[in-house]
Amino acid sequence: MSTGIIIAVNILLAVVLAVGLTPLFVWWERRISAFMQDRTGPNRCNIGPLRLGGLIQSFADMLKLVFKEDFTPSHIKYKFFFTIAPAIVFLCSFLTFATIPFADNLVIDGKSFIMQAVPNELGIMWFLAFAGLAIYGIILGGYSSQNKYGLLGSIRASAQVISYEAAMALAIISMLLSYGSIHLTDMVNAQAGVFWGVVPMWGIFIQPLAAVIFIVCAFAETNRAPFDIAEGESEIVAGYHTEYSAMRFGLFQVGEYAAMSASSAIIVTLFFGGYQIPWLDTQTIQSNINYVIVAIMILLPIKIFIFTRWMKKNNKTKGDGDLRREKETKILTTAFWAICVGIVGLLAIFLITGLGTNGINIVTAVLQVGTFLVKFFMMAFVYIWVRWTVLRFRYDQLQMLGWKVLLPLALLNIVVTATFIVVGS
Fold first, then answer.
1. Domains in the chain: how many in total?
2. Residues 406, 215, 262, 27: is their CA dihedral positive or negative?
3. In which element (H, E) is residue 113 found?
4. Which of 76, 167, 189, 307 has the most CB atoms around its CB within 10 Å?
5. pLDDT at residue 422, rounded to an integer
6. Contact residues for 329 (Cβ-Cβ < 8 A; gap 6+)
7. pTM of the full predicted structure?
8. Does 20 reside within a domain?
């Protein structure tokens, strides 16, 4: 029974993080862009008294795409390729999330479980394989559209992929030399310690140059600004998905956010300690579990108090629906405090009755999953932040960046890393 539950939890986490968060990310991106441009953003759509700060708008847009007419232009000859292109982008972006470890191996009744949706021996190679395949969906979509803008988008996508893939792979080689394994769980566990007694042994500190190269290439991988040259609205209308509508267009958009989620997760895993809590490895948490629980019981109500106060202060608009917003704030505040009281009460019961070996392992895994989620959302915020800050590159500028800057730096980093390992061994 425990095996099935753990597998189901891992798959559910992967599905929610890769695909289920798309409405949340759409809303988050709109709100952040509105804040940066000194405007309000979506805040009108509602279900009864609930607006959730505009989040309901994202679900309304999703339903609109589902029920909208799926139109295929009559001039399209390669309808099979036209149909499967969005599915290729979506599936490849989704499957890149399959080997991300959410926590250290969970031991239940002496049996160890890998906390990944699809445990396998490929590790980081799985990510590279499916991330590289997603570009074929974009190329097929633009080519099969038989539209000059779509074709230009496909050509740009082809130029883009040959510009960053080599540098990305070479940056990963530097990380493989440093960690000595292709398995993502081993890579995260290698980041558990500290050096100089204070600084976590995260990949960003061990390999800062590889981190910069990989993160830049990961932005290009997702086809998001400043590397959204394949769709470039101001230049080629919408590029490769100009002729798409309804859910086929929606699959391209979901695929983009799934790629952003997967890239955020792999960046966190490789360079920011993954599920590791700074200065607290798995063994330290398990041996001091009571102190950790007490700290959570103290900090959680403080954070809920600060958040609900912020929500009450910012969920107001002068002269517009004050009563409705007040009612929504009360509902959400009550819900957050109810969740907080439930969690604190459950933790208090654990302290009184004791957890046992399995309980300690489960609580440790939950804490590590929570740590991974915090880092994941912070990296996703960086993606959104950069999109609304940096101007789009021209495709020739991206090629210059990839071949004349990132590639030589990646090769130099491999040489330096290999020399350091040989001399130090």
1. 1
2. negative
3. strand 111-113
4. 167
5. 85
6. 311, 312, 315
7. 0.91
8. yes
How far is 413 from 129, CA to CA, in rounded Å?
A: 23
Chain CA centroid to CA 333, Å: 27
Supply the pLDDT for residue 320. Answer: 52
31-73, pLDDT tens digit by residue? Answer: 888 888 888 888 778 787 777 778 888 888 888 888 888 888 8
Percent of the chain with pLDDT over 70: 96
pLDDT (tens digit per residue) in 64-78 = 888 888 888 888 888
The span from the CA of 352 to the CA of 357, in Å, is 15
Question: Measured between alpha carbons, how far is 373 from 321 in angstroms, rounded to an integer?
Answer: 34
Q: Which two tokens stand for residue 401?
A: 């960046």
Give residue 301's pLDDT band: very low, low, confident or very high (50, 70, 90): very high
Residue 61 falls within a domain, yes or no?
yes
Query: Residue 240 carries which DSSP code?
Result: G
Which of 8-17, 204-213, 267-276 has the weakest average pLDDT? 8-17
Evaluate whether residue 167 is within a structural domain. yes
DSSP state of 276: P
Ramachandran region, residue 104 (left: φ > 0; alpha: ψ -120 to 50; beta: rest)? beta
Pair of tokens at residue 6: 């753990």
Return the pLDDT at 57: 87
Measured CA distances, 252 to 90, 92, 96, 188, 399 (Å): 7, 11, 16, 31, 24
What's the token pair of residue 275?
Answer: 């599920």
Question: Which among 103, 124, 173 is positioned nearest to 376, based on CA atoms?
Answer: 103
Closest CA relative to residue 253, chosen from 138, 150, 155:
138
Residue among 258, 261, 243, 238 nearest 85 (CA):
243
Which pairs from 178-181 meet CB under 8 Å and 24+ separation? 178/203, 178/206, 178/207, 178/417, 178/421, 181/123
Q: Which of 59, 32, 62, 57 is nearest to 43 (CA)?
A: 57
What letter represents residue 138's amino acid? I
User: Which DSSP category does 277 fall into?
Assistant: B
- Rounded to 5 degrees, what are φ and ψ at 195? -125, 155
Task: Determine the structural domain holding residue 206 and report its residue range.
Answer: 2-26+53-274+397-424
78 close to 144: Cβ distance less than 8 angstroms: yes
DSSP 3-state helix, strand, coil percentages of the chain (rounded to 5)?
A: 70, 5, 25
Query: Does residue 60 lie within any of the structural domains?
Result: yes
Residue 399 has a pLDDT of 85
